[in-house]
Each structure stands twice: as structure tokens, then as C-alpha cells.
Amino acid sequence: MKALRLTCLLAATLIAAGSSALAQTPNRIKIGLVSTLSGPNGALGEEIRDAFNLAVQLNGGNLGGVPVEVIVGDDQFNPQVGKQLFERMVKRDKVDFMTGVVFSNIMLAGLPEATNERVFYVSPNAAPSPLAGKECNPFFFVASWPNDAYHEMAGQHATARGFKSAYLLAPNYQAGKDSLAGFKRFYKGKVVDEVYTKLGQLDYSAELAQIRAAKPEVMYAFLPGGMGVNFIKQFVAAGLNKDIRLLLPGFGADQDISRGVGDVMLGINDTAHWALDLNNAANRRFVAEFEKAYKRLPTVYAAQGYDTALILDATIRSVKGNLSDKDAVRKALREVKFDSVRGSFRFNTNHYPIQNYYLREVKKDAQGRLVNLLASPQPIATNHGDAYVQECTMR
Amino acid sequence: MQLGPSPASALPKPASWPVWLLLTLAAAALGFWMHGAGLDYYLSMISRMMIYGLAACSLNLILGYGGLVSFGHAAYLGIGAYTVGILITEGMPNGWLGFGLAMVVSALLALVIGAISLRTKGVYFIMITLAFAQMLFYLVNSVKAYGGDEGLNIKMRSDFGLGIVLKNNLHFFLLVLFCLVVCLAFMHMVMRSRMGRVVLAQRDDDIRTEALGFAVYRYQLALFVMAGAIGGLAGALLVNQQNYVSPNLMHWTQSGVLMIMVILGGVGTLAGGLWGALLLLTLEDLIAEVTPHWQFYVGWVLLAVVLLAPKGLSGLPDLWRRKPTPPSGGDA
Amino acid sequence: MTWILFLEQALNGLQFGLMLFLLASGLTLVFGIMDMINLAHGALYMVGAFLAAWLAQLTQSFVLGILLAVPLTALFGMVMESTLLRTLYARDHMSQVLATFSLILIINETVRMIWGTDMPLAAPASLSGPVELLPGLYYPSYRLVIIAVGLVLAGLLYLAVTRTRVGAWVRAGASNREMAMAMGINIKRLFTLVFGLGAALCAVAGALLGPLMAVQVGMGETVLILAFVVIVIGGIGSIWGAFVGSLLVGFVDTFGRTLMPALFREIFPPQVASAAGPAVASIMVYLLMAVVLFLRPQGLFSRR
Fold first, then answer.
1. Do A52 and A81 belong to one domain?
2. Residue A40 to residue C258, Cβ atoms within 8 A
3. What is the CATH number of the domain that holds A52?
4. What's the structural domain count of chain A?
5. C222 at interface of A, judged by CB pairs closer than 8 A
6. What is the ipTM of this complex?
7. Spatial distance between the Cα atoms of A36 and A52, rounded to a whole number of angstroms
8. Contact A209 C118 (CB under 8 A)
9. Average pLDDT in the A211-221 region?
10. Pairs of residues, one from chain A and one from chain C, whose beta carbons lie less than 8 Å apart
């Protein structure tokens, strides 16, 4: 009986191995895209995936002139699942590039699976500060923005607006810590309190009571996805928006959040590296095509996913589809030139972006939809990098 | 109707050592072949299944043989994994130290939890083991220094010296196989001993056993500690296999998964946990390729097993041969 | 801590506790009368929330959504009871645990297949602002509604159990099932009824909490543990015990979340304090249960 069971297992393994071996079609570039596609934060991963696929589709199913297969996986907001997906895609499916993850904690769990096997990871979102500095990695590139950047800009803006006291809130994980550190780096007023909540927490009644008691002038909250929707709704429900100004990082007030929250979002300011109405040809095309394909307006996540595909497109083209020389690919990535939807873009020596940042405001567009548009076409910061690049000793 | 074998057939049959040896050698040979054939990904997958199998077998010790429904067993897995993970992170990758300490810490934890929990019975026991597991989960979650709820990445595997390089998938597979066989042999000897008989007796009727003069509590506690130690060993292996550990490993739903493995493979049988783990994880992987809703199918399979085939995989031959199960004692 | 802050947190604790009560009351009756551990109780809470979200979308009315979802969930619960769960009464606890655990998997995935992983559920716009209860004390009106509904239902339940004949049967069944059957009470039908009632209460809680938390697959598991903690503390089979236990857990958890971090922040740096604070608060609930089990293993108000 036991021997029979063991033989069956062996047979199953062989079949699985054989079928995956047969599935290898040559001359195709495989890209593994792991993201959060389910749960209250699933909208963010969907934005990245949809935008990435759109870019591939607009290029006729190719990137860099080579046919591309995008393998998608759902990390279910769980680092362990994400790590297993990375392992499967790198070791079994033998992908050429990995990308996709929204949340830093999941990405940090999965990244070694890629970089240890010398597979490049181009991040369409997560960009934690340790990887910008001491732990910079030759196989890790960021196509979005350094985790601190939006928050630095927000801190700068809060100072410029003359808010004397601020209350800070973020979830207790790497990006959360980066966000408040960034805000404090550029904010010159008094930080009344700095609270870290549980990642994924949805009920903020206890924290809101504390905020009310602390009476700050401005409230800065870093809460992506479902967390942000709930917090803003509860903030307003508790009546706190009457006396306290709410300032958010770009994605905290983006289209997915305003869809969930509603009209109370009007007038809220936020900081980001991209906006719907940024005036360049690539962006105009992107927004139009995205809306046509998916019947909704894109968020920053989508813009980042789209740009990631464009980066890979330019890189693959530059090495003429030959990905076996990793150093050549890295050089191509480092020097990549493409028409980004955000305007100017280049990689810093630590593979993090140098770009412009803008102040945005939630307004209503011609069709009455809540949209996040430029408060002013002038960037509030130009060619801004990150604070950790000096610590990176990579060459 | 009681889940698991009836008292008469509950004792493990005397070990057919030749069969065990043959199976072990066959498994080792399989490992060598797969490594040579470049199927390392699958080898590491099988290693992972075997580790979960070991964990499930340790649960079967207290659940199947002991009749103690502990919803907190995953805690030992987690503690074992974190012990090794923390040691490696702090620059002490010595495998002997790591694995040894993992087992000791898990055993101590089991001693403390068991000492308190075993004073309760029935649903209270279930709840209190669950409570302890959740406490540990939240505690570990809050220790940011070792990752908190992001989990802990470890940069290298344990170092045992003696030419064993765990980074090599074959070496790792053989280590897992070795641990598995040794632990199964140990559990077999325990259950064949006097202690084993007392354990089975108290499972079926603890009051009567107590009345016969046996200190049931002490036997239960000893069993609990053994199961905890083996769970810790499984955890130490797991953190090496994944190069990662997160508090999710200790969540009560993970204990539930281990229970599923036990029941699928056969409650109260020696290697039931192993077969259950192999079956469940293979099913998971295969069905997940086809549909994201694999939990739906697994749920029905499990329900069917609980309702129709209470002895799990190990009981299938009896079902096919239509052997009537002898009436069991216990609650109606 | 100011008086305003204290009152606000007290209200938060009350709201949380009352919702827990809705879940725990059904669970304690099921356990008390039929001696069955039903892990799928949390799944009923989830089904109620999803039905409410879906129906609210269809009818464009939050109230209609809840009113329709409740009887539908009750029906679902009763069907589940009379087909599957009835076969488990005679089985041992482990079988019940495993069978209902697999039911969780099945129900979770079925909901995911029908509605996806989550659904939006918004409270009526009229309730999206605060109410000034006392000068300076603003409290979200929606949460006040939750508290009101919870109190009313608790009162009705108490009256039903203590003042009606059916209620007497329920109490009899919880005390001694065999005796109740010997006295001529149709325990099977009574039980289906009780199960349906429990499912209905779960649905109310799920629908009410939906706008505050997220209506998502797996939402049942988190509250399930707390519900079990409540009934263990309160005593199995006792509605009054479930009420006291729920409030106790609600207050301990809410105050723990705020007092602990404040305390820790005096001692540790902010990130450590903010992780340890909520962690210790959650542990406090389990510690409470462990203490109660140790001192009075049958719970505070047990009927056995």
C-alpha cells in the first residue's frame, strides 16, 4: 500500500515536470508579475497589471520587438504566498524578469528568490529605503519613486502652507516607516504625534479619538488602498475634517480612493510624481488608451506599471533581445531612455529614479468624476532623488 | 462514532523494518535521481511536503493517539523556525546549535502550555490551546527587530559542517528524510511502549484509566512535550527550506491545515500525517494550476472524509474491502 | 486622558462589544443545547455581509439590503443545519471541528466564486457625519445607530429567552438536553430554529459592520475566535454570559489599544510602542480568558 502511494506520487511529479518542460517555447521573453489582486487592496495590483498588459498590447504583444508572455500571480497580500510565487516563476517557469509587487513587505520577502538567481526585478511600486542605500542590489531597479519621496514633498508643502502642528499616521511596516521619516525630514513644524497602526487595519475609531484629543492643524496619513478609504470615511464621519486639514501622499487620494470615499474628497491636496493631466504625448496616449480599454481612469499605480513595461521595452530593444549577458542588460537598464508618462526620468546610481514632483488637488472633471489633477503645472521639486544614495556602494 | 481506529486495532503493528528500510532507500534514490536530472525545483517542493508531513505526524501524536484536539500546534512550528532564523540572523548559523535549541525551546514551550492547558478538558482545552497560539502569534508579530509581520528573511541555511552543504537541494532533502525517518521510528517505539498503551487508554476513557491508577495528566504532558519538540524540529527545517519565516506560520488557521493533513492521511496512524501532507499539498499545487478556487474542492474532499471515511487514506483499504469497523467505545 | 477621550473610547468599546454579542449569542446557544462546536459560524457572518452588500447594490438602499439579507442568511443557516450539521451532533468534538473547518473553506470559496473577494458596502449618506452628544464630544452617527440596534436586539433576545415559552424550551434544552426531550420538547425543530436565529443575528452584525470594516472573504475567521473567547468567558449556553463577556472583551480590547500604546510610548520608541501596543491589547483578551478558565472553568454564568 505504501509503496503504491509512493509510486503514484513519483508518477505525478514526473508528469508535472514533463509538462512544464514541454511548455517551454523558445524565443519568447517571460515576465513574472506578482501583485496583490484580491482583498481590499486588490485594486492596486489590478491597476499595475492592467497597465502593464496595456503597454504590451499596444506594442503588438511585444516588448523591445520580442514576443512577451506575462505570467501573473496573486500574492493575496501575504508575504509567504508572494515568496512562493516568486520561487515558482523564477525556478520553474524560468522567467527573464520579475515585477509587479505593490507592498514593500511582500516584495522584500520575494526579492531574494529573484536576485539570488540573477533575475532582474523592476519595481512598479515598492521602493523601500534600505534598498536605496546600504542594501542596494545590482538586480533591483525602481520604476516608481523612492518610498520617502511623496512624503518628503508633503512635508515640504505642509511647511510652505504654514501648518504649525502635524499628526502623523502610517501602517507599521517598512514603507510606513519610510513615509513618516520622509515627511519629518522636510517638515519644519511640530509633530504632535506619530502613530503606527497594524498593516491591513480597517477600523480606526480608537486612533481617531486620539487625534481629536491631540488637536493638530494638519493630519498626514499614509494609508494605501482599502486602509485609506476606510480611514478617510471614518475621519469625516467623526467630524474631524472640520478643524483638521487632511494632507495625503499621491496614491492616498487617487482615483481608486475617491471612487470609494466620494465627494468629501474634493479639495484635498496630495503630492505625487505624476498626474492625469500631465502634459506630454506619452501620457495623453496612456490615459486615453487606458480609459478606452478598462472604462476607468488610471491611478499612479497604473502609470507606474505602464512605465515599467516601457522601461523593459527600451532595455530589451537596446540589447537586441539578448538577455543572457546580465551585465549588458544592467547597463542598458541604467542608461535607459524612453518616453515616460511622467515626463523626465532617469535612474540614479542606486537604481532609484530622479524625477519631478507635483502638488495635486482633487477636483471634478467635465463628466463630474472625482479626479486628482495638478494644482499647478509647476513641479514643487525638480530632479529630486533620494536621501540614501550616498550609502549605496554599488558600482 | 469516533474518529480514528478503534481500540483493538489502534496499536501500531510491529514494525516491518525491512519495508521501512526499503522505502527509505527508495526515497533517497529518488532524491539522487531528481537532483541529477536537474529537477531541483521539484526536489525542494517534495522536501517542503515532507517537512509539513513531519509536523502533521507530530500533531497526530497528540491528536490521533492522544485524543487531544490542540488548535495551537502550529506555534511549535513557528517557534522552532524563529529560533533558527534568529540565530542565523545574529550570526550563529551552526546547525547543531540551531536545531538543538529549536527543539529544546519548543519542548519547554509545550511543557508550559501543556501544564496549564491539560488541566482543562473538551472544548475548553481546544480554546485554551488556541488562545496560547494566538498570544504567541501576536507577540512575535510585534517584535519588529526580527521582521514582525513582514517576516524574517535569512541569508543562508544552517551549517552542520561534516561536508553537509544545505544550500545543495539534495543534501537538504536527505537531511529532511533522515529527520523524518528518525522521528517516525521514535514515535513508533513510544506508542509500542507501556506509555503508548496508557495514552491510547486515556484517549478512549480517561476517567477509567485514571481509576486504574495511572497518572493520566503526566502521560498527556509527556506526549505533549514530545509532539512539541518534533514540531520545533519541523519548524527548523522549514525556515531552512524557505529561507524565510513569518508569524503567519503560527496562526491558528495553520494548525487547522495541519489537522486537515492528519485527517486526510489517517488519524491515529503513524505516518498518517505524512501521507496527508503529501496528498494535500500535491492536490493544492495541481488544482491551483487549473483554478484559483482549489480550497473549494479540498473543502469538499475533507468534508467527505470526515463524514464517510473517518480513518482517512489509511482507512481506504478497509472501505474497499468492506471490512466492518469494530464498534468503538466512547461517546455515542 | 481627558473625559471626552474616555467617553469616546467607551462608546467605541460598547459598539464593538455589542456586535460581538450578536455573534456570540447564536454560538453559545448552539453549543449549549446541541453541544456542537460550529467553526462555520463566522462564515454565516460573512455570508450575511455579502448578501447585504449585494442586495443593497441591487435595491440601491442600505436598509433594504440588511432587511432582505437577514432572513436569507437565516434560511441558509437552517438549510445548512438540517442537511449537514445534523449528522455531526452524535460525533465527537474533533469531528465537529474538522467538518465545520472544511465548511469554512467551502463557503469562503463559494462566496468568492459568486461575488469575488470583496464587495463595497456603504452606509447611508445621512449617517456619514458626526453627532454632538455633549459639548465637544462628537461621535459618528452611524456607530450610534449600531449601538442602538445592538441594545435593542439584546433586549429583545433577553425578553424572548426569559419571557416566552419558546425561550423556556431553549433554556431547558441548554441545561439538560435529554431531560428536555423527555419532557416532550421537539428538540430537533427547536434547534433548527435556534440555529436560524443565530444566523440572522450574524447577518445583522455582518451587514452593520460592513461599512466600517471591509466586506471580504475571510472576514469571519477573525471575529470567530473572539466570539469563542466571549462564550468561554461568559459560560456556554448562557445569553447573559455572552452579553457580559462581549462587553468585557469589547472594553478590554478598545481601551487596551489606546492605553497600552500610551503606556508603552512613555517607555519605548514610537515604532516599538505602536506594534507592541495593539499586540499586547489582543493578548489581554486571551489573558482574560485564560484567567477566567483557570478560576472558573465553566465560565462566569454557566448553566451547567
1. yes
2. no
3. 3.40.50.2300
4. 2
5. no
6. 0.81
7. 14
8. no
9. 91
10. 87
